[in-house]
Amino acid sequence: MNTIEKSMYEWKSINWRKVERCIFKLQKRIFKASQQGNVKLVHKLQRLLLKSWNAKLLAIRRVSQDNLGKKTAGIDGVKNLTPKQRMALVNKLKLGNKSQPTRRVWIPKPNTEEKRPLGIPNMYERALQALVKLALEPEWEAIFEPNSYGFRPARSAHDAIEAIYSSINKKPKYVLDADISKCFDKINHQKLLAKLQTYPMLRRQIKAWLKCGVMDGKDLFPTDEGTPQGGVISPLLANIALHGMEEHILHYASEQKWRYPNGVSMSKRDKKQSISLIRYADDFVLIHENLEIVQDCQRIIEKWLGEMGLELKPCKTKISHTLNTHDGNVGFDFLGFNIRQYKVGKHQGAKSIQGTRLGIKTLIKPSADQVKAHLRKLGEVVDSHKTAPQSVLIKRLNPIIRGWSNYYSSVVSSETFANCDKYFFEKLKRWAYRRHPMKNGTWIINKYWHTKGDDNWIFSTRERENPFKLAKHRDTKIIRFVKVKGNKSPYDGDLTYWSSRMGKHPEMPAEKAYLLKKQKGRCAYCGLTFQDGELIETDHIIPKYKGGKNNRENKQLLHRHCHDTKTAIDKTGTYDKEPLEREAV
């Protein structure tokens, strides 16, 4: 099919099933070639993918339809693309050695007064970065270290927390909790480009993005270091820059003459297993039972980061102990979780022959700062809805409560959830009393709180059928999270493993998890297996405006772009009710 014939295609007629299958096959080949160390084949396959019409289609769809920030404009002011503009852009995407500047946007950092600088590329540059990411990510997913979890497909903060638990649950240890200062803004360009080890044309394009500059208002500022936050490819480049830190520490450990408490020399394997470095983006922890070793490793990491133009942030870098107080610290906070050990039982402090301390337990809970921030956010929502109907307030609060509770549903959160409900009940009571200053307490309670079963305090509307009910934190079940296996990657082709993990993720709502299992991890419209990072939306099989019910039997899960297509066709009355039976053209 030549370029003219391709340009005649309409966006809505694209067979996305065929497009995604074609690209995924190429990505699997890149992944396997990288695993085998066949650099020549990796570069050959990457060139093939970057010239692929299907890859360009997929890249444009991801930045113009799937991405949540698709309506954020670059310096050209373009916020979205029409289907015709998307098709026209396909033929323009091509690697080069120039790039337009990014647009500076300042956003507040959570729970602080500081602001984070973003560099927003225009739509063309975003699409080209998405295209390059399709080719570059499979190569590096085969190389990345097993304990790197941030900004990687199918890996999450919960995987990092489980890795920490596995490292400390049998023995108290010292922990270096560190944060890399201005990681995205300070990366050395020359070191990063040298580490990429890619072919010249791709190297020139990535260098152009790094050196493109940034427009802050009407002023252009050069970018001599760092990667622009806000770019599609920036998180991947940051991970590549920090790749090798864990390997460097493990190599240092294997060269040391460490011994067990009984004087027996450790083997190389035991030395490596005794030390853990777990990284999530620019935050990491280093864990070992010996304080001097942790301090030595801190100096080694600072030197290693210095070569990349980076440094540790002093105010966020500290050494603590998981069980005992050290420098005023006990336990540590990481990714919103508080991780600490406690003495239990009558054998506190006893030691076994292997040196493992008995009478301790490791508890991971929501951190105090995150609990305060969550309750403050709920309070702000209530305060901003002083005169709103009860149903509107409930609709606004439920996603916040469920989302926060799901995030912490894999750790020891039952007591925290109960305390949140207790505090928030008092907040809602003040909201209700303020609305009816002339009514007594019994009347107010009976109006806003109702009984169902054994629960006499359900904040809900008065409707007999399908009332709006406020979700409670403690209704969220605690289900332990299973960490991702070793070096597993979505590009290894094990779709059964990855689709089953999606439904078990703590942040996956119960209804979506049920539908995922029912659909065997596949989209009900295109039939493709859902992959990590894809936006999944719930669709009514029979639309509500046609009399469809709002229950699970009338719901299905679709990709966001499939949902858009199905909705558009549904309104014309030509929707195919059995889309899974359609075969790729």
Question: What would your notes on this structure say?
Answer:
A hairpin with a 2-residue loop joins strand 9 (332-334) and strand 10. The strands form 5 sheets. A 4-stranded mixed β-sheet has the order 2-1-4-5, with no helix packed on it. Residues 350-357 and 575-585 have low confidence and may be disordered. It is of the alpha+beta class. Helix 15 (368-383) packs parallel to helix 17. The protein is built from 21 helices and 15 strands.
Largest sheet: 4 strands, mixed
Please state the oligomeric state of the protein chains shown. Answer: single chain
Helix content: 40-55%
Which structural category do the helix and sheet elements fall into? alpha+beta
List the helices and strands and how they pair.
Layout: H1 3-7, H2 16-35, H3 39-50, H4 53-66, H5 83-90, E1 102-108, E2 115-120, H6 123-141, H7 157-168, E3 174-179, H8 183-186, H9 189-196, H10 200-210, E4 214-216, E5 219-221, H11 234-242, H12 245-255, H13 268-274, E6 276-280, E7 283-288, H14 291-307, E8 318-321, E9 332-334, E10 337-343, E11 360-366, H15 368-383, H16 390-407, H17 414-435, H18 441-448, E12 449-452, E13 455-459, H19 495-503, H20 510-518, E14 536-540, E15 555-559, H21 560-572
Parallel strand pairs: 1-4
Antiparallel strand pairs: 1-2, 3-7, 3-8, 4-5, 6-7, 9-10, 10-11, 12-13, 14-15
Helix pairs in contact: 2-3, 2-4, 2-6, 3-6, 4-5, 4-6, 12-13, 12-14, 15-16, 15-17, 19-20
